[in-house]
Specification:
Layout (H helix, E strand, L loop, with lengths): L5 H5 L1 H8 L7 H5 L4 E9 L9 E2 L4 E2 L5 H13 L3 E6 L8 H10 L8 H9 L3 E3 L9 H8 L6 E2 L3 E3 L16 E9 L5 E11 L4 H4 L1 H4 L3 E3 L2 H14 L4 E6 L16 H4 L7 E4 L5 E2 L10 E2 L4 E2 L2 E6 L7 E9 L5 E9 L4 E4 L2 E4 L5 H6 L1 H11 L2 E5 L3 E2 L9 H18 L9 E5 L15 E2 L2 E4 L3 H4 L5 E8 H11 L13 E2 L12 E3 L2 E4 L21 E6 L2 E2 L5 E7 H4 L13 E8 H12 L1 E2 L7 E3 L6 E6 L15 E6 L5 E6 L1
Parallel strand pairs: 1-4, 4-5, 5-6, 9-11, 11-12, 12-16, 21-34, 23-32, 27-36, 29-35
Antiparallel strand pairs: 1-17, 2-3, 7-10, 8-9, 13-16, 14-15, 15-16, 17-18, 19-20, 21-25, 22-24, 23-28, 26-32, 26-33, 29-30, 30-31, 36-38, 37-38
């Protein structure tokens, strides 16, 4: 098989999504003959309860998410094809406050229909599989949600109790596959039956990520092993086309049993004709997968078979167009294919421009749940005993960063407590996000002491990063901090009012590591340049680095909780990359903070001054921050701050005497 009509894939289909040319048929539909038919397969994936185009954390509409928006593409694409089928590839049940509202507040009672299922029921799905987040609220909750769907769920590797001697011997929670017998119309307008089989897979890592819900009740078989067990059965039962619904990403290299991102190797299983993938929150075909052996980004194939990954939160629709032809035995086979991932928006610099409007039927289906969720996020979920602010996050240990680290440490210890790294000490790395800069003098976190609402979490954590943990040595901890300390200019001892902050250094690369204490010697040059390049090998800004009151052992091993950006090499921190990642969490850092607040009831974000500047005689520095920070000036620990007049562009100037 090979990809055909590349101009069509990039031109006509993209035009349908952008311009709504619903009357224009796809070439496969237009040119099918009496022996061939066009079958268009569509995928949503990683919806994470994003039905409405709304960010509940910041309490505002958005143009970059929402099944209601994706539905408009689904409607248009259906109108441009003779025969279509729609599937979901998992991770629909958890991931935003609407999901938490249903799980923690309203609950699921017999006969209830979950709002994400309400939205999906409107669109007429043919099949769906599970993602790892479906288990976050427990098996009973998940089962009640699945019962509300008017389409089948399949999963071939989610096993009740212990694994069987082989995949065929497993006792499964769901049917491993479904074979949908569909009437399709050929190029002459004649109808014929076709049997399309859908088989589903979930990452085996659910047994680690949701051990508290699954251990003793469930197991997960290796994805490829499960496929080899069940795909031949599907062929025996007459499936003409077999489509894998793989809630698993795409990685290259040698296959390892239990692999999390196994879709490339799954594509190599004989009998699978096409694949929908997900889990990675990426787009395929797309440049993120260039250079992987067995992956053809231009053709949109894995091991030569058509595949698509439709982004996340409804951002894209995965589309596989098949030209199927009769195989001479009243069956069907794939003659040609194309793949595409149309988006609900386009980028224009920092702007996100919508390409579609919402489907009113989907919005109407969840209108009451949306209203209830808004009330939920605007209501307090906990309290803070001290204000949360970031006005001084670049010059002193800070409460807005402190609470993120507290939540990350709490979460990571829970997730690793039963694994091989349980005995290692857990540190946490977090950076200030809202710290003025180009955002202006009002671009700071500022939450008063008292009630904390879920939407306040947006002030604490701007980005939808996901949790990660790395295993490194004490020497690596020091280098991590040396890289962070590059945000500061070198100062001359004995000189006053020197500029402190390097404005070209982004605040999100200024990591504070909690769980150790240290000083920063500003008289030293920065060891690393703005992009993480080694500039001054002999420089040592990080001094008195201590763990549990003693100098840190360069050889001691630590777990450091962080996010996917940093753990994946973002910011070019020395030695921090995928090779040292030991935990890839299923949750966003935002969700972790919300859970921590709910768990604690009352949080204490007061900074503990675990880092300070090294004293320098007769030396002072100047920095700028938002003028509203004045009310917190006396609360900052580890440093004495005084006003120094007006700054530029509405900022206020402050002085620190070292």
């Amino acid at each position: 098989m090979s990809s055909q009509f590349s101009l069509t894939r990039r031109g006509v289909l993209g035009g349908l999504a952008a311009a709504g040319a619903s009357s224009l048929l796809h070439p496969y539909s237009a040119f099918a003959s009496g022996n061939t038919a066009h079958l268009r397969l569509m995928e949503t994936t990683d919806l994470h309860v994003h039905v409405m185009p709304y960010d509940y954390y910041s309490d505002r509409p958005v143009d970059t998410a929402g099944l209601a928006r994706t539905a408009s593409i689904i409607n248009r694409i259906r109108s441009a094809a003779t025969n279509t089928m729609l599937v979901d590839n998992g991770d629909f049940l958890q991931g935003n406050p609407m999901g938490d509202y249903i799980a923690y507040e309203r609950g699921m009672h017999d006969g209830d229909v979950h709002p994400v299922i309400k939205g999906m029921n409107v669109l007429g799905y043919d099949a769906a599989t599970l993602g790892n987040h479906e288990f976050n609220y427990g098996l009973d909750f998940m089962t009640k949600v699945l019962n509300g769907a008017n389409f089948p769920f399949v999963c071939a590797n989610l096993v009740k109790g212990q694994l069987g001697s082989n995949g065929r011997k497993d006792s499964l929670f769901l049917k491993p596959y479904v074979i949908v017998e569909k009437m399709i119309t050929d190029g002459n307008g004649q109808s014929h039956p076709i049997k399309v089989g859908f088989i589903g897979f979930v990452p085996p890592q659910i047994m680690n990520w949701d051990a508290r819900h699954l251990v003793g009740k469930a197991n997960a078989r290796d994805i490829v092993d499960a496929a080899k067990a069940w795909v031949p059965v599907m062929k025996e039962e007459g499936a003409d086309i077999i489509v894998a619904l793989s809630h698993s990403g795409i990685t290259g290299g040698r296959y390892m049993e239990g692999q999390e991102n196994a879709s490339l190797h799954l594509a190599g299983v004989d009998g699978i004709d096409a694949l929908f993938t997900g889990h990675q929150h990426l787009v395929f075909p797309g440049p993120a997968f260039e250079g992987i052996e067995g992956v053809d980004v231009a053709a949109g194939t894995l091991m030569g078979k058509p595949a698509a990954m439709g982004g996340f939160w409804g951002s894209n629709l995965g589309v596989i167009d098949l030209m199927v032809e009769r195989d001479g035995n009243n069956g069907w086979k794939i003659a040609k294919f194309t793949t595409e991932v149309p988006s609900i928006y386009k980028k224009d610099g920092r702007k996100r421009i919508p390409l579609v409007e919402s489907d009113p039927k989907v919005e109407a289906a969840v209108a009451e749940d949306h209203k209830a969720t808004l009330a939920y996020v605007r209501r307090a979920v906990g309290e803070t005993s001290a204000p949360l602010y970031s006005y001084f996050a670049l010059v002193a240990d800070d409460p807005s960063v402190q609470i993120v680290s507290q939540a990350q440490t709490w979460y990571t210890k829970q997730m690793l407590k039963d694994g091989p790294y349980a005995a290692l000490p857990v540190l946490s790395a977090a950076a200030p996000f809202k710290a003025g800069g180009r955002g202006g003098p009002e671009y700071y976190t500022d939450v008063a002491a008292g009630a904390v609402a879920i939407k306040n979490v947006a002030d604490l954590y701007l980005y939808p990063n996901t949790t990660r943990a790395v295993k490194i040595k004490g020497s690596d901890v020091k280098e991590w901090l040396e890289r962070s300390a590059g945000i500061f200019n070198q100062v001359v001892p004995g000189k006053t009012d020197q500029p402190l902050i390097n404005p070209s250094f982004p605040s999100y690369n200024f990591d504070v590591i909690d769980g150790v204490s240290y000083q920063i010697d500003l008289s030293q040059p920065s060891k690393y340049g703005p992009k993480g390049e080694l500039e001054n090998a002999d420089a040592n800004r990080i001094v008195d680095l201590m763990f549990e009151g003693k100098p840190i052992d360069p050889e001691q091993e630590f777990i450091v909780a962080t996010n996917n950006y940093r753990a994946g090499g973002g910011g070019n921190f020395p030695g921090i990359n995928d090779e040292v990642v030991v935990f890839v969490g299923p949750d966003t850092n935002r969700d972790v903070i919300v859970r921590y607040i709910v768990d604690q009831g009352v949080i204490n974000p007061s900074a503990d001054a675990n880092w300070v500047f090294k004293p320098l005689d007769n030396t002072s520095v100047l920095f700028e921050t938002g003028p509203a920070g004045k009310k917190y000036m006396g609360d900052v620990k580890g440093v004495q701050i005084e006003e120094a007049g007006d700054g530029k562009d509405g900022f206020a100037a402050y002085r620190i005497t070292l």
